[in-house]
Amino acid sequence: MLSFPALAQGNATAAARGISGCSDRKAKFEVKPSTGKSPAQPEQGKALVYFVEEDINTNVVTHTSRADIDRKSIGATDGSSWFYFSVDPGVHHLCAATHFGMSSNATAVVHFTAEPGGTYYFEMKNLSWPGDGVYDVSLFPLDSDEGKFLTTSYQLVASRQKK
Amino acid sequence: MAQARFMLLLFTTVVLATTAHAQNQTADLAGVPGCGDPSAKFSVNKAGDQQPVRPESGKALVYFIEDDSNFDSHPKPTTRAGVDGKWVGATHGNSYFSFSVDPGVHHLCASWQSGVILGTDRKTAAAHFTAEAGGIYYFEAKNTTYGTSNSTTTDISLTLLDSDEWALLADQYELITSQRKK
């Protein structure tokens, strides 16, 4: 069995600062299930990005995970769920951050080059056990078959930034 | 009377659990183009050493490898391998087998044919690749248990393995054959 090294909040924050797409502003989101559908194809001249959270430990209370791109908050998930957004072609820096309460966060980052008409799936795997003091998330690109499978299996959500 | 009630409760529990598992399996495979019939089951046995090392002429060779090195639940899952909507075999424990495909794009699937004792979130994983004639491809279905002293859960992933990595690991895996149960 894999056990988790505790990811210290300070280290995660330091690692995400400066080199990544993480927003400095700790925006908070309200997340609700959506009845919408994903677009059949990207907008003209744009690329389509799917952000999928997979919450491995489904037995505990879920937490909201924020997605930032190029240092701007773009939306959020809550538990195993997903949403999508468009980006311009070029290099982009993606950041996923889960806030677990008073002082515990877990952050992961990745970057990619978007091409016009391209579709990209990213998974944020949430391996956290907050009850045991374990906070761990990873963020990585998904095979499109795996991405389609997860977006079929999990809930599409809509999120709104809290004021 | 009490014994009869107990037996009825036991029967109901087993029926509900079996039905739920079958429904979960069907739902679990929805949207995965590589997977076959959700209800298919395989028996897995050790094989001899006769293993093709080169692809057939005009074909590509695919190794399907199950890695249970970080899977602590018992029994280990039997993991079915699917290609383009049909099962081509299964593995159990740290094991592997190979099969041929035509050149072109193929959709792969790795899916447990039954649950394990621990709670399972994921039992299926998917990937796709473009096969070239003469090519050899190694795909690893990695089954993992995660947990702390208080909680445990399971996961599966399917990824392309570097050929050097397989050369390093091959001795630790058992070549198997599988037969679909009728």
Main traits of this protein?
heterodimer; A: 163 residues; mainly beta; Immunoglobulin-like; six-stranded mixed sheet; four-stranded antiparallel sheet; 2 helices; 10 strands; 11% helix; disordered N terminus; B: 182 residues; alpha+beta
Describe the structure.
The complex is a heterodimer of chains A (163) and B (182). Mean pLDDT of chain A is 85; it is low at 3-12. Chain A has 2 helices and 10 strands, in the order αβββββββββαβ. The termini of chain A are far apart. Chain A is mainly beta and 163 residues long. Chain A has one domain: Immunoglobulin-like. Chain B has one domain. Chain B is 19% helix and 45% strand. Chain B contains 2 helices and 10 strands; from the N terminus they run αβββββββββαβ. The longest helix of chain B is centred in the first third of the chain and has 28 residues, at 2-29. The chains are: A mainly beta (163), B alpha+beta (182). The A-B interface holds A 1-4, 54, 56-60, 80, 127, 129, 131-132, 134, 143-146, 148-149, 151-153 and B 27-28, 30-34, 70, 72, 107-108, 119, 121-122, 124-128, 144-153, 155, 158.
Overall tally of structural domains of chain A = 1
Helix content class of chain A: 10-25%
| Main CATH class of chain A | Mainly Beta
Oligomer: heterodimer
Shape of chain A: globular
User: How would a textbook summarize the main sheet of chain B?
Assistant: 6 strands, mixed
Residues in β-strands, percent of chain B:
over 45%
For the secondary structure, the number of strands of chain A is 10
Query: Mind telling me which CATH architecture of chain A this is?
Result: Sandwich
Mean pLDDT across all residues of chain B, rounded? Answer: 83
Helix content of chain B: 10-25%
**Cross-sheet strand order for the largest sheet of chain A:** 1-10-5-2-8-9
Going across the biggest sheet of chain B, name each strand in turn.
Answer: 1-10-5-2-8-9
